[in-house]
Amino acid sequence: xxxxxxxxxxxxxxxxxxxxxxxxxxxxxxxxxxxxxxxxxxxxxxxxxxxxxxxxxxxxxxxxxxxxxxxxxxxxxxxxxxxxxxxxxxxxxxxxxxxxxxxxxxxxxxxx
Length: 112
Fold this sequence. Notes:
Blueprint: E1 2-4, H1 16-25, E2 30-34, H2 41-50, E3 55-57, E4 60-61, E5 85-86, H3 96-101
Parallel strand pairs: 1-2, 2-3, 4-5
């Protein structure tokens, strides 16, 4: 599961620490923190320190606001620290998968 939590540019109804508390209370093993405007790896690190009973993962979203990087430049071989890499918004002109194949990005695996 992924969640859009505070802090963020837009109002969010829950923050990282509260999500970890809910996840632990409901017996979840972990979750992914997601933000359209920045990497959440640093936030996940601190959530894991504060709530070791659940595992939080950071993510990188490849939207234009985060630089619009093509997924090929951030593949699993480029950095062992990231576990989730999200593609750009489906049908985005910055998404090389959509641009080259004509298929919507949503038809491809979302994580690597």
